[in-house]
Amino acid sequence: MNDRFIRACRRESPDATPVWFMRQAGRFLPEYRKIRTKHSVVDICKDPELSAEVSVLPVDALGVDAAILFADIMLPLEGMGVRFEIRDGIGPLIQSSLDDYQKVRSLSALAPTADVPYVMEAIAATKKLLDSRVPLIGFCGAPFTLASYLIEGHATRDFLNTKKLMYNDPRTWHLLMDKLSTSMGTYVRAQADAGVDAIQLFDSWVGCLSPTDYHAYVLPYSKRVFSYLKDKAVPCIHFGTGTAGMLEEMKHAGGDVFSIDWRIPIDVAWRMLGYDVAIQGNLDPAVLFGDRDLITARATEILMRAANRSGHIFNLGHGILPETPQENVRQLVEFVHQHTMSRG
Ligand code: CP3
After folding, report:
1. Do 50 and 34 meet the contact criterion of CB atoms below 8 Å apart?
2. Virtual torsion, Cα 62, 67, 71, 73, nearest 10 deg
3. Is 36 in the pocket of ligand 1 (CB under 6 A)?
4. What pLDDT is stored for residue 344 in this prediction?
5. Residue 88 CB–ligand 1 contact under 6 Å
6. Chain CA centroid to CA 131, Å
7. Which helix (H) or strand (E) element contains residue 5?
8. pLDDT given at position 343
9. How far apart are CA 139 and CA 94, in angstroms?
10. Whose CA is closest to atom 13 on ligand 1?
11. Number of H helices and number of E strands within the chain?
12. Does the chain have fewer CB atoms within 10 Å around its N or its C terminus?
């Protein structure tokens, strides 16, 4: 198996810097777009063979060093009793937002193998199709990011309803976070048992919080999710965007690898986090729309700042954008590999 990614997660020295891209399976590959003309995102997630096929596409097309399971952060919420849909170009929409104590109380605890058997089957099917070529990353939404969808009903700019609930109805907030963290802990544990090689916790929207509120309302719950993996051999990646001001707090929540966006230089983030963790990032996804010289210049800067330290995983700061030219992505993978392989 190509073990660059796992070695970097463990801060061992791989033969070259590993590369993968968030959202590499969905969105921009023509083969994926073709499958999407016939099937919705949720349909693909619920069909283990199709999910496996989509997950492996970028490994063949781009030469990346890891695959990510084709699923969505919203799927396990269905098992907890939440009705949602995923609207094209918008994202998740919740039918009835969870904005009071009674609604939160009625959420059930996730039983992964009974509620989302297709996720566990997709892991098995993907591992089989990968045939030990590269490791498979499983994932879940972090309690805060899931709570924000459940409370707002959809993505927002200011997360005001989420913060209002947090500040004005702490009993409901803590019950919701308690339930989400326990269910997500069980969920990622089941994924580890089903065979994923690493887990990423997606806290996509956590950067809207102050470090103080992160500490008070979020940290204990993200920490709890990671605690479910303590005795498992899978490295954990802790992802967020806009987190430059709260990295020290996030570190207390846990993770072997911290995934950062482009709003902070990678060396500054690493110094803040400490060199006892690995780091993932942090190219602006928009750079892939530039010409070859620009892409190479921005990638070189990241590699220089990472300074050959063991434990750098090259990635974007957030998901790859629709319409990204495939050839640019492929060339970037090749560039990072070649540039770091010759470092001697
Ligand atoms: O390539 C992959 O990473 C595929 C697996 C994957 C999906 N969703 C499938 C999907 C992963 C890792 C996710 C995680 C996810 N889902 C997150 C966290 C990552 C992030 O980007 O911050 C979030 C916030 C969601 C919720 C969600 N689902 C959003 C915001 C969207 C995008 C809406 C849009 O069209 O831009 C979805 C739909 C979705 N889930 C897509 C994919 C590949 C979009 C592509 C499509 O419509 O085919």
Report:
1. no
2. -100
3. yes
4. 47
5. yes
6. 23
7. helix 4-9
8. 62
9. 21
10. 72
11. 17, 9
12. C
**Res 342: pLDDT:** 66
User: What residues of the chain score a pLDDT lower than 50?
Assistant: 344
Q: Could you give the C-alpha distances from 59 to 114, 129, 131, 263, in angstroms and in order?
A: 30, 11, 12, 28
Per-residue DSSP letters for 299-317? HHHHHHHHTT-TTEEEEES
92 lines ligand 1 (CB under 6 A): yes
Distance 183 CA to ligand 1 centre (A): 20
Centroid of chain to Cα 3: 19
Total length of the chain: 344
Is the shortest distance between the CB of 68 and ligand 1 below 6 Å?
yes
Can you give the pTM of this predicted structure?
0.97
Extract the tokens encoding 176: 């919701």
Residue owning the nearest CA to atom 18 of ligand 1: 202
- d(CA 104, ligand 1 centre) in Å: 25
Positions marked active-site: 23, 27, 36, 72, 149
Which residue(s) pair with 137 in the sheet? 68, 198
Q: What phi and psi, each to the nearest 5 degrees, are found at residue 259?
A: -100, 120
Ligand 1 midpoint to CA 274 (Å): 30
Which of ligand 1's atoms lies nearest the C-alpha of 36?
48
Protein residue whose Cα sits closest to atom 27 of ligand 1: 91
For 48-87, b/e burial (b = at least 16 CB within 10 A) is bebbbbbbbbbbebbebbbbbbbbbbbbbbebbebebeee
For residues 169 and 107, give the distance between their C-alpha atoms in angstroms, rounded to a whole number: 17
Beta strand pairing call for 312-316 and 67-68: unpaired
Rounded to the nearest angstrom, the distance between the alpha carbon of 306 and the centre of ligand 1 is 28
* CA pair distance 63, 342, nearest whole angstrom: 18
Interatomic CA distance for residues 280 and 236, integer angstroms: 11
